[in-house]
Amino acid sequence: MSKPVLVIGGGISGIQATIDLAKHGVEVYLVERNPSIGGKMAQLDKTFPTLDCASCILTPKMAEVLRYNNIKLLTYSEVQEVKGNVGDFTVKILRKPRYVDWDKCTGCGTCTERCPVKVPDEYNVKLGQRKAIYIEYPQAVPRKALIDYSHCLRLNPPPDLKEKAKGKPLCGACEKVCPTKAIDYNQQPEIIELNVAAIILATGLELYDASNIPEYGYGKYQNVYTNLEFERIVSSTGPTNGNIIRRSDGKPPKRIAWIQCVGSRDVRFNHYCSAFCCMAATKQAILAKELLPEVDTTIYYMDMRAFGKGFYEFYKRAMTEFGVKYVRGKVVKITERQDNKNLLLFYEDTIHSYMKKDEFDMVVLSVAVRPNRITAAPVKTDKGGFIQIMDPYMDTVTSTTEGIFVIGGAAEARDIPDSVTMASSAAIKASTIAKKCVVEQTIITSGERA
Amino acid sequence: MIQEPRVGVFICHCGHNIAAKVDVKQVADYAKTLPNVIVSHHYVFMCSTVGQELIREEIKKHNLNRVVVAACSPSMHEPTFRTAIESAGLNKYLLEMANIREHCSWAHSDKEAATEKAKDLVRMAVAKASLLEPLEEEEFPVSPTVLVLGGGVAGMRAAIDLAEWGFNVYLVEKNPTLGGRAALTGWLTNNRRGADVVNNLINKIVDNKNIHVFTNAELVEFSGFPGNFKAKIKVNPRFVNEKCILCGECEIECPIEVSNEYQYGLSRRKAIFFPFKAAYPPIYVIDQRVCIKCGECVKACQYGAINLAEQSLTLDLNVGAIVIATGYDPYHPPKGEYAYGLHNNIITLFQLERLLDEDGPTQGKLIIGGAVPKRIAFILCVGSRNTTPSSKNYCSRMCCTSTLINAIKIKEKYPDIDVYVLYQDINTYGNDETLYEQAGEKLVKFIKFEKPPTVDISPEGIVIDVYETTIQEEISIPVDALVLSVGMVPRRDQNELIATTRASCGEDGFIREVHLKLNPVEAPTHGIFLAGAVTGPKNIIESIRAGSAAASKVATLLSEGKVRTEPFTANVNEERCSGCRICVGLCPYKAISLREINDRMVAYVERALCMGCGTCSAACPSGAMQQYGFKDIQIMAQVVAATGGGIK
Amino acid sequence: MSTNNYEPRIVVFACNWCSYAAIDLAGTSRKLYPPNVRVIRVMCSGRVDPQFVLEAFKNGADGVIVAGCRPPSDCHYINGNIKALRRFTLFKRLLEELGIEKERFRLEWISAAEADKWVRVVNEMLEELRRLGPLKAEAVSV
After folding, report:
1. Which of A336, A289, A291 is nearest to A317 (CA)?
2. Which of A108, B104, B354, B427 has its CA 20 to 30 A from that of B23?
3. How far apart are alpha carbons A377 and A3 in whole angstroms?
4. Phi and psi (nearest 5°) for B276?
5. Could you say which DSSP state residue B104 is in?
6. What is the ipTM of this complex?
7. What band does C1 get if pLDDT is binned at 50, 70 and 90?
């Protein structure tokens, strides 16, 4: 039997690499720090330029992960340490306590209904709420409940309530209602150690903190949104059930502006281009037009980077078929009107060469992405924090350590087709290494099931 | 014997995607009234774990033996639901899907009409489902051999990855050398050239015993099925064999001189020639299109390496899969487009790359029209983004970065040259943005246009007139040399490829993948994989990655050592068959023959060869030939239900 | 049925690889068209037996479309579309003899990328059928 491969990160890149490896006949561990796999793509409503619904094409892949016997899925887990060399890496993984026995949990959701604690929901970028015991999102894989320790009244009671209770345990609502007796308040963190032949880093991207950019007032002006927030708002599974409404008054906007290159291509923040935001904004403007046919949509851009297959055609279609407007120019500043919370944009139109002011009732910032930080793996990162590829022309997915590969957003800001291409690319290299490392017994830990 | 049908109907909301336009509850209630339907349900996401569990539970609870899922297109979730019903103990082909999303809720605006249509689609699905039978797939061993078509970076990388994994690889290249266009791409970064990348790959290929290279060779016939394709390769004569030591004596004597395509026409070569420094195999070649067989080269060769009587040979290969990595052509501007062809100092970006390359015709010196230009301009989007009448619709992705790399290189070598870049949008996506910054630091002048510039040839030289948007003025730029940053177009011979392999192309003319987002290296036909720029413009890194990705997908197909047949094959009812032979001639895969059964000649279907088109079934006069999953009675039931004939 | 609210019903036989995918694409790209069509999926247009078409007319279809991959080379099964072309060229002549106007039947080549063409074909045929009115019952009493 060949030695297993470890994939770190369960977004679309990690999922694709895992499935390819499994089909190559190699044993794979897929480690994801969140409770469910799916990554950023699971938060998207539709994808460009096909307007396919993201979950429609992603969910089957997520479900596929559970179908292979040679895939061991370890969600809500973090890699703490990586030692060794190609063919022989020793990895320590922390399995965070879920306080729910996942072998017993059926994902019925009864516990979440009864839980009294409401917490901002990370899946909906805190635009909605979830409970302290929760299932990450409806199509989560695995679809299992877990308790968020920091907000649970039972596990981590606020000091005042604790005092009042005089030593008696608090709440326990979930334990009372769980039909399968899956709640386990005593679950402890667990560290497991694996020996693997190769590692694929697919740790992905996060949004740059838009409130660092002073001139756009994100966090200060209510009707300024990030692109990921807007994605959740237009999504039928999002906090507004797919209704585009303003944070300030709950009314649908009449004019929406998108501002490109927020935090990217900007020497103050990040030099690089985030690669997909031009098309993502174009897609979002089309979705806005579909949901609110009367809405006026304008995209402020520096260069329209419609470079991928079908992108330029999509951009033209947005303009001609959907009436999305494009203004070439950088928005210098946004101010908020006190009376109606509308937003005034000051910008230079570089095609007509004049300074202008315009009023919108919603603004979406196409915020830069940046790599999630990973400290455990012995690899070098570049200025932007992306994991460095040793030699992009010779070994296009190999990190600075032989046997450790890097794919998707962890290596560079990339769109989905480029990410899955990198994923398959790393999979063949990792399985080639794994096949040469023969061991007697492989999988020692059981992973998550449906 | 078919059991009494017990159908369960499961209707998906797909969030709002279906439920906003189709009254799913009404459809579910309606489904209950249909013949053979035992239960019907609607749920927000049938494809979710919970939705699938609901289906499994209901199958067990009601002893269902047929399932209808009304949701998205079968191309989306048919495999998902097949697996779901299989895990509940049903044969997975006892599923029928009603496409009420793509064909209904997404296509129609009127809720009432869409709901009525959804009911009809469910009725049709139930009618067919009631007549479905369990089907079995057969397994066949596969050939652990892969044909890679195209010896550019994508094809070479695919071949190397496949060979290292353990497959036997035939790498077939149409030209006399490996390397493809990347070998001619000059500078990629400050200190690396396309030739370096190509050399690195060629060295790996030479070292690998699992790779069999055929240059000067082409695919002429391709048939069979995934795991067991038959490929006929024609190897054209090279007329020079391994005894060649690259001394070059033959070349000196050869009287025929033609334009050298390996320098994009910037220099000339002989009929017997060696393509470029790193070419592989390291053997001279005679271009049979221009050779007059005078025999001068044979006389000049001291090693007896030349044989003008060499014939082409054909190879019959049995391969498990094919990787198509045949690349692209550079856009060729028509004469007069930006004055192309009207002045010697107007060249394409591909030609400029040759000039700046140390292996190029000027050994890396920027000599255009006999001198080093003082002012040079690049025009971007030539042939791309609809800029001129003959331009393509799409963006060619790599020209901006290539232009900037070369502009920076010029500024490094010749700091005094004025370099202008005329552009619409600069597409230095991702980390390549640093090139844009560097070019700015090196004082490359960027000129933004909305309306494509015009180029005039005057006695003084080349003059570019352009409306500069930032200063809102028409400006004239006299230059000594003009570089047209031309894009990438599908290969001229692509139609032959399509005809041979049954690959197909999309609206942009490039070969189409099965799904743009998630399956970028797989063709719609199973067993055919795509790598590099054959599916659309890509840079070298992206092409190499696609080569590896295609190799990975091949391994997912062949690693098990076996593949399963199509379930929807044809099948003969031997008692009904009259042996008329109509089907034998119709079958495109030669899967049908006649054989004797009980002293009668009847049709016989070789299941491994049958791809399940059903044309034999449509033509069979006696109804003896039936296609599994698409039998006459099953389709007829759908027809009756579709026309409302099934409603009492 | 009065001709005022006459809604023609069209039965479509679409090959799995090109035309069915094009109809999917029309939906995915939200290209709207009238809901009068009912699509039956077959693997190849070469699978469509003229008998299916007659059965559709007999049961009340006002129009029938057989849609396949574009000749010559788009067919997933080498040349199933050409076989359909041969069969239905002959069949069209037969239709007229049966008293069914030839406009009620169309053989169309729609590639997987041609969602627009699909929408156009549906609209054109509907217009034609509205002009012709419902199919006469005696024509299909075959």
Report:
1. A289
2. A108
3. 19
4. -160, 170
5. I
6. 0.96
7. very low
Residues sharing a CB contact under 8 Å with residue B557, sequence separation 6 or more, in sequence order: B142, B226, B227, B320, B321, B526, B527, B563
Q: Answer whether A350's CB lies under 8 Å from B470's CB.
A: yes
The pLDDT of residue C137: 64
Radius of gyration of chain B (CA): 31
> Span B266-289, mean pLDDT?
96
Looking up tokens 């997909």 gives A276
Query: CATH assignment of C7-137?
Result: 3.40.50.960
Q: Which domains does chain A have, with CATH numbers?
A: 5-95+189-204+372-436 (3.50.50.60), 110-177 (no CATH), 209-368 (3.50.50.60)
- What distances in angstroms separate CA C63 from CA A252, A259, B497, B636, C134, one per listed residue? 43, 50, 37, 16, 9
**Count of other CB atoms within 10 angstroms of residue A207:** 19
Alpha-helix runs per DSSP H in B468-608:
494-501, 540-558, 582-586
Give pLDDT, residue B225. Answer: 81
CA distance B132 to chain A (A): 25
Q: Please list, in sequence order, all residues whose beta carbon lies within 8 angstroms of the beta carbon of residue C1, skipping any fewer than 6 positions away.
A: C134
> What pLDDT is attached to residue B418?
98
Say whether the peptide bond before residue A49 is cis (omega within 30 degrees of 0).
Answer: yes
- Residue A440 confidence (pLDDT): 73
- A432 and chain C: CB distance < 8 Å anywhere? no
Per-residue pLDDT tens over the stretch A408-422:
999 999 999 999 999
Q: Which residue has the tokens 């809405």?
A: A295
- Put residue A323 in one of left, alpha, beta given phi > 0 → left and psi -120 to 50 → alpha: left
Give yes or no for residue B1 having a pLDDT over 60. no
Q: Minimal CA–CA distance to A237: which of A137, A129, A134, A143?
A: A137
Element (H, E) at B639: helix B632-642
Distance CA A389, CA A407 (A): 9
**Which of C5, C37, C59, C64 best probes binding to B when mutated, by most B CB atoms within 10 angstroms?**
C59
Which helix (H) or strand (E) covers residue B126, if one does?
helix B111-129
**DSSP classification of residue A41:** G
Strands A52-53 and B313-319: unpaired
Determine which of B219-223, B437-441, B548-552, C16-20 has the lowest per-residue pLDDT on average: C16-20
CB-CB neighbors (< 8 A) of A52 in chain C = 28
Which domains, from first to last, does chain B contain? 7-135 (3.40.50), 145-236+313-328+490-558 (3.50.50.60), 329-489 (3.50.50.60), 570-628 (3.30.70.20)
What is the predicted pLDDT for the residue at B647? 38
**Helix H or strand E encompassing A47:** strand A46-47
Chain B partners of C73 at a C-beta cutoff of 8 Å?
A: 495, 498-499, 502, 504
**Nearest partner of B324 among B172, B208, B199, judged by Cα:** B172
Q: How many CA atoms lie within 13 A of C8 on its CB side?
A: 26
Q: What angle do CA A253, A320, A52 make, to 5 degrees?
A: 70
What is the predicted pLDDT for the residue at B289?
A: 95
Let me know: does A192 contact A78? Beta carbons within 8 Å.
no
Summary mean pLDDT of chain C: 89
Residue type, position B97, single letter: M
Q: Residue A247: which of A283, A213, A221 has the closest Cα?
A: A221
pLDDT mean over B585-613? 89
**Best C24, C25, C29 residue to mutate vs chain A (most A CBs within 10 Å):** C29
Interface of B with A in 472-511 (CB under 8 A): 472, 507-508, 510
DSSP class of residue A210 equals G
At B312 the three-state DSSP class reads coil
Do B238 and B310 touch, CB atoms closer than 8 A? yes
B440 CB neighbour count, 10 Å cutoff: 12
